[in-house]
Structures are given as C-alpha cells and as structure tokens.
Amino acid sequence: MFIFSSRSTLRSILVLFAVLAPFMSYAQNYLPILQYHHVSQATPFSTSLTPEQFTEHMNYLKEENFNVIDLKSALDKIKAGTALPEKSVAITFDDAYRNIYENGFPILKSHQFPFTVFINTLQIEQKNRHFLTWTQMKEMSEFGGVFANHTFSHPYMLRKIENETDEEWLVRMKREVSSVEEALVMHLGSSPKMIAYPYGESNDVIQQWLTSEGIVGFGQQSGVVNADSNFANLPRFPAAGHYAKLGPLKTKLASQPMPLVSYDNGGIYADNEPVSISLTFKEGNYRLKDLTCYVSGQGKAKLSWIDAHHVVASAPKAFTAGRGRINCTMPDKSAKHYHWFSNVWIRPSADENYIQN
Q: CATH 3.20.20.370 spans which residues of the chain?
C-alpha cells in the first residue's frame, strides 16, 4: 500500500504515468498466428505471395509495433496462464520451400523476427532443389528460425491406402510423424514438439495420440489461439493468395478469440446434407446480435438462436467434394476488433477411402 506525503507527490506520479503510458506494453492472453507457404512470384497463387507482398507484411508489423514472438514459447505461456506482450503475433510457414530461405528469410532477419517452418522431410532427404537443406535450416536457426513437423511425405492423414486396416493406417501415420521428430533431433539438435497437419486433416485418434506424445497440432481453420483452444488442433490465419492483401491482414491481426463455452460441428465429415454448427457463448457483454457467419462459396449462413447464448449456424446447401468451412465473426464492444471462429469439414469423394472413426 502506497501512502503519499502530499498532493504534489501524487500529482508528480500521475504526470509521470501519463508520460510513460504510451510506451507501456499492456498484456494480452491470446495469439494470432500467420500461415505462409511460398514467398515467390513463380509458384501456385493459392499458397503464394510475392517477395514484395511479404516485405509489405513484415514492414507493417514493424511499423505498427507488433511483437513478433516465438511460437512455441508463446503457446507455453498461454497454456500456463502467463500474459503475452500487447500486439503479439507469430509467423509460420508450411512445406519447407527453398524460396522461404531465398526470399523470406532476408526480410525476417533484417527485422529480427522469429518464425517457425513446418517441414516435410521426404523432399529434403531426396535433395529436391525446390526445398530447404539442413545446412540452410541450421543457418536460419541462428536468426530466430524454428523447424517443426509437417510429416514425412505430406499425406492426406485421414485417407487409408488400398486394403489397409485401421490399425495399419494408424501405424503408418505414427511413423509419418515420428520419423520427422527423429530427423529434427538428428540434424538440428531438438524438436519443438509441434506439427502442422498436411491439408489440415486430423481426427480424434491422431489428436489423442499426439497429445500423449506432448505434441501440439495445427489445422487449417482460421482463428485466434487462447487458453480455451484445442491444443491438438489450433487455428492459424492464411496470409497468401487471396488473403495476401494488407487490408484483410490488418483485420486478422486485430482479431480476438470468439468467447465460446463450447461448439458442436456434428463431426469432421460433411455429406449430401448441408452442414451446421452449434455455438454456445460465454456469459458477458458481447455484441451477439452482430454475429455473422459465412459459408465458403455460399454466402451467409442461416442463424437460428436457441436462446440468448446459443445459436446454430447452417449452410444453405451441401458442400461439394473437398473442404468447406463456416467462418463466424463478431465485433467487440469497441467495434475496432473482431471475435473470430472457423470450422472446416471434409466432404470425401467415394474413391478417397477416408478413415471413418
């Protein structure tokens, strides 16, 4: 307890606080994570942004005083209930493309931004000239680069091969993961125990096994990580292709977690019926009347309120084969930020032999 000897002392302290306030870093308990693949003009549009666009993104983070932090350390703090610096964000890449080293790494190094690359090691072992080498990864490790698991061969993790039993499928998936863990330790000295699922595919069986191994998993649904998140299937924001423009990126960087108690998506697979998702919100002063949900390729979802804190968002029609999602956003009380939640479903084709459990 502070005891002030005079009003002048109190006044001096208040003046000092006013001077220092703009420079103080207020804590946050959530983390937006950016997902990149290629940094190149000569690669597929959907997973690429140009070196100029990537430079624009990184310069924006620097100029706007974002705290670009190490992903693994940030997740450990969130799980432990330890606050992150204000405006914290993490940067990730998938697939270990060499253009990350050639075009992305120089700007990351110049800004001293840490980053994580999820690597699939088959192409590295085959010395594919389009993929990173272990020597390049060691160099990047000296300047904030962390390398994590993206499986050995980048499979669709929920598809069985012909005549494969469920037990054989799980053994194969475990080997896809464990072989990369072994390679990371062998070539780089350690593993951060994180995996990005190829194509965002995982199920309860895979997630439970990874959790038992102490490995954190990432899907391809968008959203913000906080202590309530499923650490076996965390969201990230794609920042390439159609999402490479700076305007949408600013919105994502200012996003916060959706204040959910729970959700029910009816399972990971879609069929010939429209999907729906049930959302139950926490008690609090939220702008629930301004909640909006969009269905990929279909426009707005229908919202059916069960009660004041429980809504069902339904797609207008069934998804075609592949992946479909519902993205839900809601402005916060200030209208300067959005709460964000997303769910992805898989609509298998008849010949794709997806695991059913």
A: 24-255
Q: Which fold has domain 261-347?
A: Immunoglobulin-like (2.60.40)
Question: Per-residue confidence at 335, pLDDT binned at 50, 70, 90?
Answer: confident
pLDDT for residue 233: 98
How many helices and strands, by DSSP H and E, does the chain display?
10, 20
CA distance 9 to 155: 66
Is 301 within 8 Å of 275 (Cβ atoms)? no
> Which amino acid appears at position 21 of this protein?
A
Cα–Cα nearest to 116, from 34, 198, 216, 232: 34
Torsion angle of the four alpha carbons 13, 14, 18, 21, in this order, in degrees rounded to the nearest 10:
70
93, with CB counted inside 10 A (0-12, 13-18, 19+), is buried
**What secondary structure letter does DSSP report for 109?**
H
Question: CB count, 10 Å around CB of 341?
Answer: 25
In angstroms, the first-to-last Cα distance of the chain is: 58
Nearest by Cα to 294 from 349, 354, 222: 222
What's the order of all strands across the beta sheet hosting 310-314?
Answer: 260-264, 276-281, 310-314, 302-307
Phi, psi angle pair for 145, to nearest 5°: -80, 135
Closest CA relative to residue 330, chosen from 250, 251, 276, 263: 251
**pTM of the shown model:** 0.91
301: nearest Cα among 278, 322, 269? 278
Tokens representing residue 329 in the block: 């956003």
pLDDT in tens, 35-78: 999 999 999 999 999 999 999 999 999 999 999 999 999 999 99
Q: Are 323 and 345 contacting, i.e. CB atoms less than 8 angstroms apart? A: yes
Domain 24-255: CATH superfamily, name plus number: Glycoside hydrolase/deacetylase (3.20.20.370)
Cα distances from 210 to residues 43, 194, 196, 352, in angstroms, run 32, 9, 12, 24
